[in-house]
Amino acid sequence: MTRFANSPVTAVLGPTNTGKTHLAIERMAAHSSGIIGFPLRLLAREVYDRMVAMKGPKEVALVTGEERIVPPGARWFLCTAESMPLDREVSFVALDEGQLGADPERGHVFTDRILRARGRDSTMILGSDSLRPVLRKLVPDAEIITRPRFSTLSYAGAKKLSRLPKRSAIVAFSAEEVYAVAEALRRLRGGAAVVMGALSPRTRNAQVAMFQAGEVDYLVATDAIGMGLNLDVQHVAFASLNKFDGRRQRRLTIAEMAQIAGRAGRHQRDGSFGALVEEGPGAFTPEEIAAIEGHHVPALDHLYWREGEPDLSSIDALIASLEAKPDLPMLRAAPEATDLMVLKRLAGEDWVRDRVRAPRAVARLWAACGLPDFRKLGVDPHARFVSRIFRHLSEGRGHIPHSWFADELARLDRVDGDVESIAGRIAAARSWAYIAHRADWLEDPAHWADRTRALEERLSDALHTSLTQRFVDKRTTVLLRQIGAGAAHLPVVIGPEGEVTVEDHVLGQLQGFHFAVAPDARAADKRMLLAAAEKGLAPELRRRAAALAQAPDDTLTQQGEEICWRGVRVAHCVATANPLRPTIRLCRTLDRLDPHERNAVQARIAAWFDARIAADLPDLAALDALSRDASAGSRVRALAGLLVQAGGLMPRRAAGALVETLDPADRKWLRKAGLVIGTLDLFMPGLLKPRAAAARRALLGLGEGPAEGASVLPRGAAGAALDHGYRPLGQQAVRVDLAERIARSAHDARQRGERGGRAPFAPDPALATSMGLTADTLSRLMAQLGFQAVRTPPGQPQRWAWKGLTPLARPKPPPRDTPMGRAFALAQGARDD
Fold this sequence. Notes:
28 helices, Rossmann fold, single chain
């Protein structure tokens, strides 16, 4: 292109939003052919899509490091500055963001294009007005045109994230900071789109599309948006004013601030900029504000330069030409770039020098060193990777093995993991895409280019999905908008399974009166979702409260201490001294009901509980009524109360003193209620029946009981305890009513004997045998009943003599004749026994 050194050069300079890029596109479209070099792959892709819409896909080419779409007859090329084909003759050439010649890392590329890239008929250099002084010296014949900004850019002050206006872009200068800001916006405002230079065009376009379509109102980006990306942004907020430039952490220059802030406003619509803090290093100074608002950027006094056509005669000549100093005073030698560092490392390898002896081999080595470090691994790891690439390029047929290439693509072909993991795979895939687009590095470059493009697209889609899942909560966005309009307008819908939705976004699940936030909601969002549910579910909760207050008995159940309605917990029982009268407390999920609604629910559950006791435990209910019957004597009421507390069954000795004071009238009252005052136990036979026994276990929380109808249990079996109605006797436990039957049979046999029942006797063994009692169990039972074994000749039935029960201790008199004193005496007597 340098052969067109005499073609006219036009420099179009000015701040952002002046239409410079749009002008260059129109000028190129008016020429028969052309090339435009852009600072970003993303911007090249954006303009490529516009040109394809204007000229058709067969006429337009896209050339970047990792992407190459070049139809055979292509006439218009959209490229990154590094990928501009300078050996191609075209009518029009343009370079965008020419002021990047002052960038220490890439500046030498832009400076080289300013000096050497020329169109046959026209050349255009676009950039900031800061480029004017050095451009007059480097290209003295250039016509310089200044274009004013279409709209006003003004400082809007510092605003917190929670107070940023909609259609704002927040700019940060590291991936970690971008993610942190996006996460905060997701919690505060429902989410944000994310744009970074490391994103693939497909991911970036998908993220921008969400912002442009209004699905999210905020965009979080790196300074990549300052390079001409067209976005509908009204306000730019700086999360920080410091960045790491690859060598050190420094404050942004005014030119950089202005470039980024200038993304606010579009065409004739004014824009604003600001920071997130009012004071400190993250705040703008008055001088910076005035310079940005007035578009007064400091003029550049130099650009970075490196030889654009280095000497390829040998490795040493190549290094020398790349380290050569510029002749012009406004040019400075570029800092040592990664490609030159890698070249020097490889030049120190003997095997490299052995293989690089001809200019063609030197050119091939230099091309390999130009592989960008997309993964940002650092010079040494990247140099080892390039060394392996060049080893393959310098042996055999000079191609990278398909097996290695395929294995590396297969290793990256995974879409699992978080945002950082997927982004890392895309960065690695970009290296292989770059390799695939070097026509002489692979045997079938077209095939591998398609493979790498498909891989990047698949990873890009996964990254977009991951970014959206992590930083965009559409449910939260909808809720914030609806809640802002008023709770009465919140369109809550409750599905048949209790799912609660607002505009098809699931908030959670309503089970009975309990609202459970959707399991995919993050902890920070739960409070807002609960608040939204409370506002929107009030009518439904009132309807359910009315239904519960009239609930049929078969819809209420008890599971341990919990009372459930249609399988959902609504209340729980708090034990009192009387198990038939626990305190019933409604669950906290019913707290949002009105007091009269709660009272109605409370009354219904209490009535159901009483009815259930009356149906399942009528004997215990009768005993409870007896304990409160004023016509019964005090001794009867006291004993009935003790038995109710024990669930209708207790050892006789536990109430022995009280039992001994009963007179015949008292016993009649108790028999009428169904109580059996046995030799060993006090019990109600009706409570030992299967249904009543199960209800009693549930009421008292006794756990698993014996098998239905079991009369004798082995020791250790479920329910083999007195609480369950079984008296343990050695290796067996006998149901208390059967133990009492044996006791009566033994006393009957004793009374029929000699000496008024004092003579030894042999009870009928058939009764014990029919029950399944062992001899040891029977012996233990007889001993507890007050009988003593008598020596019996071998072969004869065991004989027993009446010894009598151990006498109870004399009860202590109450301290005084008061109800409390009587109760104390009864309790004290039970403890003494």
